[in-house]
TrEMBL record:
Upper lineage: Bacteria, Pseudomonadati, Pseudomonadota, Betaproteobacteria, Burkholderiales
Annotated Nicotinate/nicotinamide phosphoribosyltransferase domain residues: 172-395
Signal peptide (from-to): none
Organism superkingdom: Bacteria
Protein name per its UniProtKB record: Nicotinate phosphoribosyltransferase
Gene: pncB
Length: 399
């Protein structure tokens, strides 16, 4: 049972990643009738989450009681790419508990199932706070007296490395909400980074902390958006192009970072032609070898007669500071660079982080999937559809 005097983990509906709002606005304007299903997965072997099911449910109940405040709505209204009708919709919005189930897996192996099912417009904001809830509940119960001094020591070593003179132009952002040790720890990390490296901190994906601490909120699109377009577009083979075109139609040149690995990088390059090379400001890496990806992306721009020095490459896959520096040294001067660092910033206190995800698996009753360049990231409940998707996009199955 959950302990008495339960302390809320999520205290604001802004405590999520910016790309949830940017995608949600597209859903409101283009796909308001879409129905979706998401599933939870913990990639850590041997982690038993079943003792925490009741507490997770209690936190979800409290999450669903939250509403956007007038100050929060005014903040969103002040973002140049957020439209007034979307803010008015959010003024009426709340998360509904009826769309979420949390239960022990029928396998009886310590796994839990979290199933989110309902209208996309009303379920899209569940993913990030639910992952943050699972993380914080788990670490509250397994590490009731966390070694914060060790976490601060580790963070200080990272910031000293980043602030060294050769790297003063290396800019990073916090992408760590979903797998943070706790809400309070993420806030401490952000404030420590701001004080230690100043302009090298580009901002944070977390809208709540961006508002509270006058930081830049960062984010554009996530895999779920491109996955949903597999069911929403006119033809499966054209779904990636359709998703990018719908995005450009909504934002008219703003939020111009494309995600490159929903169908595998080869398929992305085939679709990301001269038009998209010029239209989008840059691309984000989230799976596969980042050095190979960067070299191929720069070569692709050059082959399309686009100067890569005017484009931004964002690296965001399981980064730590030494890898950030290695990538910075490889690509600086050849393109604009940015780095989104998540778990290694917000959950590095000496304990093994949870590798947990919530992924869309269906849209309008049809399976959808991500063909990741890192095979273990692929998540689909229909093997037949996965094979068909690989065939359509000429993506080989992993050996």
């Amino acid at each position: 049972m959950p302990p008495s005097g339960l302390v809320m983990i999520i205290r604001s509906l802004l405590d999520t990643d910016l790309y949830k709002f940017t995608m949600m606005q597209v859903v409101l304007h283009h796909f308001p009738q879409a129905q979706v299903e998401y599933r939870f997965k913990c990639r850590n072997a041997g982690v038993d989450l079943t003792p925490y099911v009741d507490e997770i449910r209690s936190q979800i109940t409290q999450l669903c009681q939250l509403r956007f405040t007038d100050d929060e709505l005014n903040y969103l209204r002040g973002l140049r790419f957020i439209k007034s009708d979307f803010v008015e919709f959010l003024a009426l919005f709340h998360l509904n508990e009826k769309y979420v189930q949390v239960l022990p897996s029928a396998k009886g192996n310590g796994e839990i199932e979290i199933i989110i099912k309902g209208p996309w417009l009303h379920t899209i904001l569940f993913e990030i706070p639910l992952l943050a809830i699972v993380n914080e509940v788990y670490f509250r119960r397994t590490q009731p007296k966390p070694d914060l001094a060790e976490g601060r020591r580790r963070l200080q070593a990272k910031l000293e490395l980043l602030a060294a003179p050769p790297y003063v132009d290396c800019v990073i952002a916090d992408y760590g909400t979903r797998r943070r040790f706790s809400c309070d720890w993420q806030e401490e990390v952000l404030l420590s980074m701001r004080d230690a490296i100043g302009p090298q901190l580009a901002g944070t994906s977390n809208v709540h902390f961006a508002r509270l601490h006058n930081m830049t909120p960062l984010g554009t699109m996530a895999h779920e958006y491109l996955q949903a377009c597999q069911a929403l577009g006119p033809r499966l083979r054209d779904s990636q192009v359709y998703a990018l075109e719908r995005w450009a139609h909504e934002y008219r040149g703003d939020l111009g970072i494309a995600l490159s690995d929903t169908y595998g990088f080869d398929a992305f390059l085939r679709d990301f032609d001269l038009y998209f090379c010029k239209l989008f400001d840059g691309v984000r890496h989230d799976s596969g070898d980042p050095f190979e990806w960067g070299e191929r992306m720069i070569a692709h721009y050059a082959a399309n007669r686009v100067d890569p020095r005017g484009k931004t490459l964002i690296f965001s896959d399981a980064l730590d500071i030494p890898k950030v520096i290695e990538l910075y040294e490889r690509f600086r001067g050849r393109c604009k660079l940015a780095f989104g660092v998540g778990t290694n910033l917000t959950n590095d206190l000496g304990y093994k982080p949870l590798q947990i995800v919530i992924k869309m698996v269906r849209c309008n009753g049809q399976p959808v999937a991500k063909l990741s360049d890192t095979p273990e990231k692929t998540m689909c409940d229909d093997p037949g559809y996965l094979s068909y998707l690989r065939q359509v996009f000429a993506v080989q199955a992993p050996a």
